[in-house]
Amino acid sequence: MKFLSAFCIILLTLARHIIADSESFGLLSIRSGSNLQYASVYVNEGKLYVGSGSELSAVVTDAGKLKFNNDSSTFAVVGSDGTVIEGSEADASDKFSIRNGHLIFNNIDGFYAIPEGASYLFSTQNAENAVGIAIRATAPNGQTVPDFSPPGVNSSSSFSSGTGTPASATSTVAQSETTSVTAVSQTSDGQIIAIQTENSAPRAVVGLGASIAAAAAALLL
Which spans does this entry mark as compositional bias, Low complexity (predicted)? Predict the structure, then answer.
């Protein structure tokens, strides 16, 4: 019994070392054929926008929260209308992940840019005249960061299902050497309908799992 307890403690310790935040990345808008192609997600007076402002960088924490790499270390807070603001960790939304080089929220690969004067609000929900976009999680070297699914967050993603009427677009994003080209196709209503890619992140996870299994086997000998 004591041996079993010690064995469980070792496994939990190994798991804690494996689970950490994602790599740091910039939030880059993808919407071919529009002025939002390769636009940045930025903060202005506490609200998140899509446009030509200074690009935010962030990490997805092991709690599924989007933490901004700024002086205040603020977090993304998704409002009831889908718009996103800066806030504290206590108020932060916790359904973020990274899959196929894209930022995911609530298992949906797709966001919206909602016109507000000459700017575009960054949102997780559709609205009148909204433009459907994807958010590429871009590393400092220009490649995409590895997939990251926090514990308790479903690693599979569906596609955006808004009912607005953004212009039709198809975009192709160059991936890293360990990632194939990602194709994002959108219908006339801005829905993202096809994303095909593969990368080495799942294999890396398998490798980590194998390490735990090896350690467990050694203890049983």
Answer: 150-174
| More confidently predicted of 172 and 37 | 37
Q: Are 108 and 160 in contact (CB under 8 A)?
A: yes
Assess contact for 181 and 172: CB atoms under 8 A. yes
pLDDT single digits (tens) 131-147? 999 999 999 999 999 99
Q: What are the structure tokens assigned to 12, written together?
A: 């939990």
Residue of 111, 108, 136, 131 lying closest to 119 (CA atoms): 131
Tokens of 173: 């994003």
Please, which residues have CB within 8 angstroms of residue 128's CB and are 6 or more apart in sequence? 164
Q: Enumerate the domain spans of the chain.
A: 19-220
Q: Is 210 helix (H, G, I), strand (E, B) or coil?
A: helix
Q: Estimate to the nearest angstrom the gap between the alpha carbon of 195 and the chain centroid.
A: 14
Q: What is the pTM of this model?
A: 0.66
Between strands 158-159 and 108-109, the pairing is parallel
Q: Does domain 19-220 have CATH number 2.60.40?
A: no
